[in-house]
Amino acid sequence: MKLGKKQWTNIVLIIGIVLILFTPVGFYARVFVSRLLSASALVLKTELQLNVGSYDWELVDANGHTFNFEEAEGKVGFVNFWATWCPPCVAEMPSLQSLYNDYGDKVVFIFVAQDKVEKVSSFLDKRGYDLPVYYSKTEAPSLLTAKSIPTTYIIDTEGKIIVAQTGAADWNSEKVRKVLDGLLAQ
């Protein structure tokens, strides 16, 4: 039996769908597309900049060291909820690492992983990331609860949420850097 052009097209389409849905190729394709589509995060309008309120939130790192979010009070904070299995999270990681490299000593960065410690450690090591990753020990303040990931918040020194971004973003953009520089100058 000889296959026609339409049958070959259908076979190629089915193979493509199988690759995207059931193999790692699909994961990396979604990461690539997320990277292409990510733009700079937007600053919330003043009337939408709510105060975090309580800083009562305990986190723990991969080595078991506790970090209390209260240590970020009065400082510029950057909180990112993410997971290794999330293509948009993986897509924004290079820009987050670049931003952390330049602002890590001025801004309190908190990367909250939604994954197992071993998987996150392996992911970070494999890619050469040295981000300060934590796991929630207690519940996050209600205004910092992420219903989907990635979700990222930038908080000013008064505790107001200046940026609340859901989905991948280019965190190493000039716009984000200007926001952080402005907050640090206050």
UniProtKB/TrEMBL annotation:
Keyword Magnesium: no
Keyword tags: Cytochrome c-type biogenesis, Membrane, Redox-active center, Transmembrane, Transmembrane helix
SUPFAM superfamilies: Thioredoxin-like
Domain Thioredoxin: 48-185
Compartment annotation: Cell envelope
Residues spanning the membrane: 12-33
Pfam families: Redoxin (PF08534)
Full protein name: TlpA family protein disulfide reductase
